[in-house]
Structure formats: structure tokens, C-alpha cells
Specification:
Length: 373
């Protein structure tokens, strides 16, 4: 049974980005606060400011204002963008080179600092250095079976570690000293400080695109065999049951308490609390799905959309209105971490009371008594 957890809202329409130039495609996106950056196949970076507007009826819309566009001077696509807001820097991967540019004017840093030989890269969101004016970057190197760790400062980069892997890595996520890697035939956890590695489960990267995503401290979400979204900790164990995706998932994001997945035709929403599929949104030609500081963004080749979550209280009330008491209580308990303690206690008491009346009306007196109690 479905729950309306998200609404799909357009953020950047095709005309704003490319006008009538049909050959332009979106390759990557990055969002930091109100700043939205888009990298394209013709080597441009576009910077938009996103303004959230709430109508009198409570509907949320986004207005994007174009700030700047910058040509990087190559005939190659911009493959990846990552913002390091503490440094006011944008890390740009193009033609196997990561360049540092200013987040505001998109100009390269004067020192020309760059990281060469990167296939793909990610930032360590749980850094180990303790330096607030540095970001830790992990790259899959063009060198065979090699991962490199860098410290990136405002105007310089410094290599910290080079690690060799048993097979060629094709995707990576980082938490502290732990790397979660998709290799050619399996997923592993590797501690780059000690060199100790732990096998997770087999996976064939030739058949499907692997997904490796850090979803919290020492925990990752992976695209497993048989269309399963699997959770794994750095100890190589799973503390949550898997979610059932379609076989051809191309992206996943987390917006607690939901895991959102994108395939060729749909965006699907699963609850992390009971693993059930809660919502399906038709979405053709999707190619990117990412979450940024709780904002879930999805993109096609030509446009960018935002998945706006409906307030959890509204979702709980909708479940109660459909007499889905168990699901409403599970969601209410899960909402505890998103709502201030005092507000949560008042809300939860009211929900227990409503649930009690629903059970009472269905002549389930023992269950009603427990809820009233």
C-alpha cells in the first residue's frame, strides 16, 4: 500500500540550461546550501541559486536563478563535481584531472593545484585529519588496482596514502579510515590505515552498475545481487534487513527514514523501518539520483528535479486515516530522530490516542487498551 512520502518538483528546466542546443547533456550535479552546480558534456559548469518558495496553500516550488557559466577549455565532459564549502572550493573532475575552482566565480585557484590520474573520486564525510581547512579526497586512480588518498587545502593538494586492491575498483565510498569498494567481482571493506580488508558479497560489475553509498557513520548502502539494496557496516555485517529494488537500479539516495532508488522507468521509495515499498513515481530517462544535506535531487539528460518530502506528521496522519495503525506507529517511532524531544512526546501521545480509538472502533479492545495506557 502506498504512502505519499515525496513530491517531484521541477528545479531547472531544459531551456534555462541549453536553450535550443539539443546536443548538451547533464553529466553531473552538486548542491551545497542554495548553490546548485551542473556539469555538462560540452565541458561547461553552470551555477544556479535555488530559492524555495512556499505558496499560501503550503505547496513548495523552486525557482532557479542562473549565476554563471564557465567553459573549462577541453572537448571532454565534466564527469563529477563536489563542493568543499569550508574552503569555498568546487572540485571538478574532467579528463581524469581534478581541478580546484572558486565556488563563487568558478575560476581555477591561482596556484594551479590539481590531482591528475583520477577515474572517479569521493570526499570523506567523516575525516580523520581533524583539520577544518582541509578536505580528504579518495580517488580511484588510472593506475591499475590503485586507490589514492589526498588532503586538499584551499590552494594545494597533498597525497597521503596509496593503496593497492586485489581487483580493479570501480566505485568507492569512504568513512574515516574505511573504504567500501566495488571491485570487479565483489564488494569489500578496506581499512586504508591498517591494510586489513573484509569481503562483503559477490557482485558482477560487468553486468550491472555497482552502487556504493555512505549513509551514516560506519554504514554503507550497496546494490547487491538479485535486485537487493544491502546495508553493511565497516565490520562487514548488516544491522538492517535489505530492501527489494528492481534489477536495474542506477542510483540510490537516503532521506531518513526512506531509501530512494532510481531505475529506467521509476523512482521507488522504501522505508528503512519496515523495508516495505511505500511509493512509486514514474520517471523516464533518469540518469542521476543523489542526496545533498537531506535534499534529494534527480536529473535526466536535460532537466533537474527535487524530491520534496512531505512532513512526517502529515504522512502519519494519512496512515491513520487509512486505518494502517501499525505502519503509522512504526513511522512515528522512526520520526523521533527528526523531531525535537518535547515536540515528539506531545505528537507521539496524540498518535497513540488516535491509534487507540481506531483499534477500539474495530473491536480490538486489548490492543486499544495498551495504546490508551
Amino acid at each position: 500500500m502506498s504512502v505519499k512520502a515525496f513530491k517531484l518538483v521541477s528545479a531547472v528546466e531544459r531551456e534555462m540550461l541549453m536553450g535550443d542546443k539539443n546536443y548538451i547533456n547533464i553529466e553531473c550535479i552538486e548542491c551545497c546550501g542554495k548553490n546548485l552546480y551542473i556539469g555538462t558534456n560540452d565541458c561547461f559548469i553552470y551555477h544556479f541559486l535555488l530559492d524555495e518558495k512556499v505558496s499560501t496553500a503550503g505547496k513548495i516550488n523552486f525557482a532557479a536563478t542562473k549565476q554563471l557559466q564557465k567553459y573549462l577549455g577541453l572537448k571532454k565532459p565534466v564527469s563529477e563535481l563536489k563542493a568543499a564549502s569550508a574552503l569555498t572550493r568546487l572540485l571538478v573532475l574532467c579528463d581524469n584531472t581534478i581541478t580546484l575552482v572558486n565556488m563563487i566565480n568558478l575560476e581555477p585557484v591561482p596556484t594551479g593545484a590539481r590531482i591528475k590520474g583520477a577515474v572517479t573520486f569521493t570526499l570523506n564525510e567523516n575525516p580523520v585529519s581533524g583539520d577544518p581547512f582541509c578536505v580528504e579526497v579518495c580517488i580511484i586512480s588510472v593506475k591499475r588496482r590503485t586507490i589514492q588518498m589526498f588532503m586538499v587545502f584551499e590552494d594545494r593538494v597533498q597525497i597521503v596514502k596509496e593503496v593497492f586492491t586485489p581487483e580493479q575498483p570501480c566505485a568507492v565510498a569512504v568513512d574515516g579510515y574505511y573504504l567500501c569498494l566495488a571491485l570487479t567481482t565483489q564488494y569489500i571493506i578496506l581499512n586504508y590505515n591498517t591494510g586489513v580488508s573484509q569481503d562483503l558479497f559477490p557482485y558482477c560489475s560487468d553486468e550491472k552498475r555497482p552502487i556504493v553509498k555512505r549513509i551514516g557513520r560506519q554504514e554503507f548502502l550497496l546494490a547487491g545481487p538479485g535486485g537487493l539494496g544491502m546495508f553493511a557496516t565497516v565490520d562487514g555485517i548488516s544491522q538492517r534487513a535489505p530492501v527489494h529494488w528492481s534489477e536495474n537500479v542506477i542510483g540510490a539516495a537516503l532521506c531518513f527514514p526512506y531509501v530512494v532508488a532510481l531505475d529506467d522507468e521509476f523512482i521507488t521509495v522504501h522505508s528503512m523501518l519496515d523495508q516495505q515499498q511505500k511509493q512509486t513515481l514514474p520517471f523516464k530517462e533518469g540518469r542521476i539520483l543523489q542526496d545533498f544535506e537531506g535534499k534529494v535531487i534527480v536529473a535526466t539528460n536535460k532537466g533537474v528535479y527535487i524530491l520534496v518530502p512531505l512532513p512526517l506528521e502529515k504522512q502519519i496522519q494519512d496512515l491513520l486515516a487509512s486505518h494502517r495503525v501499525e505502519e503509522a506507529l512504526v513511522l512515528a517511532k522512526g520520526a523521533r530522530r527528526n523531531i525535537p524531544k518535547e515536540k515528539f512526546q506531545v505528537m507521539y501521545k496524540r498518535i497513540l490516542q488516535q491509534a487507540g480509538f481506531i483499534q477500539f472502533a474495530q473491536l480490538q479492545f486489548l490492543e486499544a487498551k495498551e495504546l490508551f495506557r
